[in-house]
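Q&A FORM
Asked by: J.P.
Topic: structure of Aldo/keto reductase

PROVIDED:
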Amino acid sequence: MTNRIHLGKSDVSVHPIGLGTNAVGGHNIYPDMLNEEQGKDMVRAALDNGIDHLDTALIYGPERSEELIGEVAGEYNRDNIVIATKGGLKFAGEEMVMDNSPSFLKQAVDNSLKRLNTDYIDLFYIHYPDKETPKDEAIGALKELKDDGKIRSIGVSNFSIDQLKEANKDGYVDVFQGEYNLLHREAEQTLLPYTAQESITFIPYFPLESGLLAGKYNENDTFSDVRAKRPSFKGENFKHNLEKVDRLRDIASEKDAEIAHVVLAWYFSRPSLDAIIPGAKRPEQVMNNLKVADVQLTNHEIEHIDKIFS
Ligand SMILES: NC(=O)c1ccc[n+]([C@@H]2O[C@H](COP(=O)([O-])OP(=O)(O)OC[C@H]3O[C@@H](n4cnc5c(N)ncnc54)[C@H](OP(=O)(O)O)[C@@H]3O)[C@@H](O)[C@H]2O)c1
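REPLIED BY: S.T.
REPLY: Here is the structure written out as tokens.
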């Protein structure tokens, strides 16, 4: 599974296993955040071990994740790194305000280029839809930036199916990024069939449900960070989820793998989904997640997993 993956119809290709860098730059949603050197070391661990796709965003840090990634990328051959970032929003005090207007997006890309210390962005996403801008107009602005060479491919994230269809009216969207994992399968209704039909790469976020799907928790674990607010980590729901995850243990041990590897390998059985960006907090996790490339699930195992989490 070490073939390179093309993002949508663009000429950008990536190793199937990338790195989500939510935790790089001091995102304040987790109490055990990495300091800046730890964050940079984790990115170096990825690049040193064959991962080339780094997924960041204006809001990680905020701004600081992009800056740290730019610093690390400067130590490597830029041509071998695929930098994906997201914008189209601003802060009004603590509040995030979406703005997908063409003029704002053009400014957002210029600002990201500065923070990343680079002259092109391999994949630029509109992070969240705003209420006002027609989506095809927003994408039209990104297409101009692509024609100018400032970005190499176009993505949208957190769009509904209708917003995605409007955005992709002229066929310019290369990547859709949305929440999708074994515990959150709503995307299978309309988004995944649409991306498969339109040759748009679907990149799932929260692929490990923030660690819950890695098989390392038990019902006595408690959470004081952002996980405490997520329904999948609460009460009876948490207990049921742990029971389901536990049922993957046999498949994992048969393959001499870990539950996290089985979960991450399962994504590759989905249509239009051939690149993942698991997040990590330590270089060991980054390296560990690369082992997914060696895990091949049989059709029977895929059906079994689907049934457990149906
Ligand atoms: N587009 C969007 O709106 C959006 C939203 C959210 C995320 N994202 C992107 O998606 C990426 C992934 O999401 P995420 O990082 O929040 O969640 P995730 O990938 O579901 O979970 C990552 C967490 O799982 C644990 N982990 C990772 N590898 C592991 C392993 N091999 N064994 C055991 N535990 C492991 C680590 O947490 P612990 O060490 O704390 O257990 C890690 O921080 C983000 O980094 C970001 O780039 C995008």
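FOLLOW-UP: The chain has a mean pLDDT of 95.
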